[in-house]
Amino acid sequence: MATILDGKAINQQIIDELQPRIQHLAQTRRPPGLVVILVGNDPGSEIYVGNKVRTCRALGMLSEEIRLPATASTSELLAHIETLNQRPDVDGILVQMPLPKQIDSRAVLLAIRPDKDVDGFHPFNVGQLVANAPAPRPCTPAGIMEMLRRYDISPSGKEAVIVGRSDIVGKPMALLLLHQHATVTICHSKTPDLPAVCRRAGILVAAIGRAGMITADYIKPGAVVIDVGMNRIDNRADAERIAQGTPSKLAAFEKNGTVLVGDVLPAAMAELSSAYTPVPGGVGPLTIAMLMANTVQSAELRLA
Ligand code: GUN
User: Fold this and answer.
1) Annotated catalytic sites, by residue?
2) How far apart, in whole angstroms, are the C-alpha atoms of residue 52 and residue 65?
3) In whole angstroms, what is the distance from residue 101 CA to residue 74 CA?
4) Minimal CA–CA distance to 178: which of 131, 224, 212, 225?
5) CA–CA gap between residue 245 and residue 134 (Å, rounded)
6) pLDDT tens for residues 5-52?
């Protein structure tokens, strides 16, 4: 039987460990502060941003949300970032990605003070990651490493295969696994014989954003499978294909007309892996936990 890697439980552990640190800061100096900027109204991004702000407040941290219209300009966004860079009560600035096309995302990432960049996306912090030097790490890959650590799954000496080469997940994930002595391969849409490459993996990370793309054919028996995908399915054909062998997913589709699925076929993952992250309840809760951890750490460094 595969172990289900329970992101909600690990999220709770991380939060429980942060709580006394937050209380200490609040009592001796001031609570840690995070400001989240959302441009436009992508429904997925709205849910993520809402969760981030709610979690912060539940933990007694300062949290503000800045909402700009989808038509906002780069300079408008940069003006907000400049104000937040200067504010002494703000430890973390997060600009929700992706940004609308007219905005120069690179200029935005460069504008955030690296010591307030709780996403770890600033080129300085990316450089620190490459060099394995201290800096905030991107939250999703950092959360996955924390999950592996807490389940005693060591990447050392294993083959790790990552499907997806994004700046937010794939690339930083590869570096973090490499620093923990895994042999790392990053795959993408032009990789020849992707199933064969994935079948080498002792640790397989799927971060493509394509519902149920990773089938049994991609999974070595006994592999640890990390499913970063979060895809909302609203058509029956896809739902039936992906939910095959997982009645709870089909029932969710029947009830709501939509269902949330990962990049990996859930039945294949449960059957073949030694351990896997479910969707939802796997990687998602860890991203938020690591954002909180990065914000608390930033406050501690600033107030030390
Ligand atoms: N969009 C998807 N994931 C993330 C994330 O971790 N941070 C930000 N800022 N945007 C995202």
Assistant:
1) 52, 96, 119
2) 10
3) 10
4) 131
5) 44
6) 999 999 999 999 999 999 999 999 999 999 999 999 998 999 999 999
Amino acid at position 124, single letter: F
Residue type present at position 99: L
Ramachandran assignment for 227, one of left (phi > 0), alpha (psi -120 to 50 degrees), beta (any other): beta
Q: Residue ranges of the alpha helices (H) in the chain?
A: 7-28, 43-58, 74-86, 105-111, 123-130, 139-150, 170-179, 194-198, 236-243, 247-256, 266-272, 284-303
CATH architecture of 29-116: 3-Layer(aba) Sandwich (3.40)
For CATH 3.40.50.10860, list the domain ranges present in the chain.
29-116
Question: Which residues are registered as beta bridge partners of 66?
Answer: 37
Q: 49 C-alpha vs ligand 1 centroid, how far in Å? A: 9
The structure's pTM equals 0.97
Q: Are strands 62-68 and 33-39 parallel, antiparallel or unpaired?
A: parallel
Predicted pLDDT at 93: 98
Per-residue burial over 40-78, b if 16 or more Cβ lie within 10 Å, else e, is beeeebeebbeebbebbeebebbbbbbebeeebebeebb
What is the model's pLDDT at position 26? 98
What CATH number does domain 139-285 carry, 3.40.50.720, 3.30.559.10, 3.90.380.10, 3.30.1050.10?
A: 3.40.50.720
Ligand 1 pocket mutation pick from 65, 106, 119 by most atoms within 8 angstroms of CB? 119
Q: Mean of the pLDDT values across residues 64-70?
A: 98
